[in-house]
Amino acid sequence: MKSLAAGNNGSAGILTERTLNEITYAAASKQYRTGHYTASLSTLNRLLDLQRDARTYTLLAKTLLQLGLKQEAANSYQLAAEQGGQHAEDNTCEAIKLYFASGEKDRALALANGILNRVRRQPDLAYIVGSLLVDRQQARLARVFKDLLMKSDVLEHMQLGARISLYTWDVFDPSDIETARVLLAKLPRNQSIRLMYLTFSREHCKFDAVERHQPIIEAAIAEGDTEFLRNDGTFFNLHWTGDEHLNQIARSNTPFFSPEITKIRRSVPHTWSDKIRIGYVSSDLFDRHATMKLIRRVLELHDRDRFEITLFCHTDPEMLATNQADRSLWGDIVTIRDMEDPQVVAEIRRRGIDILVDLKGHTVGNRTALFNKAAAPIQVAWLGFPGSTVNVDLDYAIGDKYVLPDSSAPHYYEKFCRMPETYQPNDPDNRPLAKQMTKVEVGLPEDAFVFASFNANRKITPRVIEMWATILKRTPNSVIWILKRGKEVQANITAKLTSLGIPAKRIFFMSQLEFDLHLNRITAADIGLDTFPVNGHTTTSEQLWAGLPVLTLKGTNFASRVSESLLNAIGLPELVAEDEEDYVQKAIELAQNPELAKEYRRRLEDNRLRSPLFDAERFCRHLETAYQMMVDRAKQGLEPDHLDVPSLPPRDSAFMVK
Q1: Distance between CA 427 and CA 616 in Å, rounded?
Q2: DSSP-assigned letter for residue 407
Q3: 653 sits in which H/E element
Q4: So what's the pLDDT on residue 261?
Q5: Half-sphere exposure (CA, 13 Å, Cβ side) for 375?
Q6: Handedness of CA 179, 181, 183, 186 (dihedral sign)
Q7: Are 276 and 631 in contact (CB under 8 A)?
Q8: Which region ranges are annotated with the description Disordered (predicted)?
Q9: CB 421 within 8 A of CB 390
Q10: What are phi and psi of 248, to 5 degrees?
Q11: What percent of the chain stands above pLDDT 70?
Q12: Which CATH code fits 265-418?
C-alpha cells in the first residue's frame, strides 16, 4: 500500500490506493460542476499534496469563490499565476479583482504593476488601479487610464474617468472639459456629474454653462437634496458657495475619518522635551511657490532655542530643481515623497514631534491621510486651505477674528486658534519692492482709470463680472485689466463683458510673468478688484506689497474673508465693502475721485514696513505663542479649545528698512 502525508492544510493521514484514485483533478472538477463545492474543496486540498500546478490552483480559486471566500480565492489565483502557463496573466487579473473586492488594496496594486500593458487595455482593471491611485492622492499617475474609462459603458468607470480629469486637468487641454460635458450629456440628472462639469466650466470661464447649470444645483439644494455635495471637491466647492454648511458637506477624495481616531491619537503616550518640536508637512517647499512667499521668513525666524523645526517634504523633484534658496535655514528636512504613510508616521513619532502642521489642506498634492493615523499629539491646519479641513483629524485651525468669527465655529471640527492681527504671514526680506511702471509701458491707455483683477480666472463668477460691468458702465473713463490663463478664457471673458454692454476696447488682458516683473506691472493699475466667494489670498498680499489698493467685499466663509483680514492688517479697513451695492459704489467713487485712490496708495507706502501684514518677525513671535498655548493645554491633559493669541505691543517704528 502506498501512503502520503497531507501537508498543506496541516492534517495528516494515510491515503489508500482507492483514495488516491478518487483524488484527481477530474473528480474535483466534476464536484465543482455539479455544485458540490465543499466536496470539491476537500478533494483539491488533498490533491495539492500530490501536485501543484496552475490548473489545480485555478479550480481551487473558483471553488473558494463559490463558497464566498474572496481573499482565499485571490491567493489561489495568484498561486496559479505563479505557476506560469498560457493563462498566467488571466489568473493575475482575477487575483487583482478579488484582492480589490476584499479590501487587500496594496496586494491588488502590486500585482497590477506587473501587467500594466493589460491594465491599460481592460477597463475593469483600469478602474481598480485608477481608484487605488486616486485614493492615494496619486491621481496624476492614473491619468493614463482616463480615456479608456470614459469610453466604457459602465457608469462607475466613466465617473472615475471624470474624477481623474478633475484632479489632474490641464487648463489648456480641451479634452478635460469635453470629458465632463459628454458624461453630463449621458447622465443629465446626475448632480454630482453636473458639479464636475461646473468645475471645469469655472476654470475656463464658460459663463454660459455656469449660468445654465448652477441654478439646477441650487434648486436641488433648496429642495433639501444635499447628499450629492459629498462628491463635490472640497476645494472646488469654495468657488461657488460661501455657505459654510455646504462647504462642510463637500468632501470628495478626502481620507476616511471618525471621531474615534481623535480619541485613539490623544491616548498615545508622548514624551515632551524642553523644546517644542514642530513638524510642517507640505509639497510646496521651494522658494518660487506662493506659500513660501508667505511663510519663508517665519521659518527662518523661528527661535531655535525654544523650537525644533522639521519639514516633512513631499515636493515634486522638478519643482525642487527650480529652488534657489538655502532650505536648511527653514528647518531639518525629511523627504517623504516616496515613503508610504506608515513609514512617515513612524518617522514623525521617532522624532517626537509635538505639533504637526498641515500646510496643504484640500489642495493638490496633499498628504492629509497622515493626520488620520495618530501621527502627533497636536495636529494643526494652517495657511494652505481657507476653511475646515473636513474628514481629517485636526485639533486646531489657525486663523484670526476676521476669517474665523465665533459664528463659524459650528461648521468646524477643529478648534480655532486666532492670531491677533492676521492669520497670513508675509515675507518682506526675500521679495523685492516693486518698481513703478507707467500704463503705457504695459499697454494701457495713459488717461484711463485702471481697475485690475490679478486673481485666478476660476474665481470670477457670473455675479462678479456683472458687478464689474456695472462699475465700468458708470465710470466711462475706466478700463478693466485682467490676468488670463489662455486664449479661450480671454475670449469667454470678453464675450461676457461685451454682452453686458462693455466695448471690447475697454477690456485689457495680461499673461503670466516672472514674479519680479509681475510685481512691477501691478503698479500701473489704480485699484485692484477682488473676487468672491473666493478672494485673492497671496494675490491680495502681492498687490498690497506693490502699493495697489484692493477693494473687497465682506464674506461669509474663510475663503471670502481673507482680503478683509489683510486690509485690516495694513490699515485700510475702508476698502472692505459691506455688501454688493457698497462694493459697486466704492469702486465708482474711486474712479470718479482718483485722488482718493492715490491717498490709499500713500497710506500703503507708509504702512508697508510698519503695519503687521508684512512684519514676519512679529508674526513669528505670535505663532510661537500660539504653539506654546497648544502645548500647555496638552501637557495639562486638557482637550483643545478655542484660543485667542494675545498681541504684542504695537511697534513705534518701522520693523525694517528696505
Answers
A1: 6
A2: G
A3: none
A4: 95
A5: 31
A6: negative
A7: yes
A8: 639-658
A9: no
A10: -75, -30
A11: 95
A12: 3.40.50.11380
In 206-289, which ranges are E strands? 276-282
What's the longest Cα–Cα distance across the chain? 112
Omega prior to 342 cis, within 30 of 0: no
Quickly count helices (H) and strands (E) in the chain: 29, 14
Beta strands in 488-562 (DSSP E): 507-510, 527-529, 550-553
**238 grid coordinates:** 469654495
- Spell out the domain ranges in the chain: 20-165, 171-231, 265-418, 439-608
Task: Tell me how far apart the alpha carbons of residues 455 and 442 are, in angstroms, rounded to a whole number.
Answer: 18
Nearest to 546 by CA among 430, 658, 424, 436: 436
**Side chain identity, residue 620:** C
The CATH fold assigned to 20-165 is 1.25.40
φ/ψ of 331, rounded to 5, equals: 155, 180
- Tell me which residue of 626, 627, 616 sits closest to 647, measured CA to CA: 626
**Rounded Cα–Cα distance for residues 289 and 312 (Å):** 16
**CA dist 448 to 453, 481, 506, Å?**
16, 11, 9
**Three cell numbers, residue 633:** 493645554
Q: Strands, E, within 383-493: which ranges? A: 396-400, 415-419, 449-453, 478-483
Distance CA 314, CA 343 (A): 13
* Beta-sheet strand order (sheet of 478-483): 507-510, 478-483, 449-453, 527-529, 550-553, 576-577
Q: What is the pLDDT of residues 13-72, one digit of tens each?
A: 444 444 555 789 999 999 999 999 999 999 999 999 888 999 999 999 999 999 999 999
Fold of 439-608: Rossmann fold (3.40.50)
Q: CA 340 to CA 136: how far, in whole Å?
A: 10
Enter the DSSP assignment of 256: P
Closest CA to 35 of 59, 71, 58, 63: 63
Q: Model confidence over 128-170: pLDDT tens digits?
A: 999 999 877 688 899 999 889 988 888 889 888 877 876 776 6
Q: Are the folds of 20-165 and 265-418 the same?
A: no
Could you give the CA distance from residue 436 to residue 447 in angstroms, rounded to a whole number?
17
Strands (E), 488-526: 507-510
Three-class SS state of 276: strand
Joined together, the cell numbers standing for residue 408 give: 463659524
547 phi-psi bin (left φ>0, alpha ψ -120 to 50, beta other): left
The x, y and z cell numbers of residue 639, run together, are 482637550
A 10 A CB-CB count for 507 gives 19
Its sign, for the CA torsion 582, 584, 587, 588, is negative
The residue type at 11: S
What is the number of alpha carbons within 13 Å of residue 254 lying toward its C-beta? Answer: 26
What's at 342, amino acid-wise?
P
How far apart (Å, rounded) are the C-alpha atoms in residues 270 and 267? 9
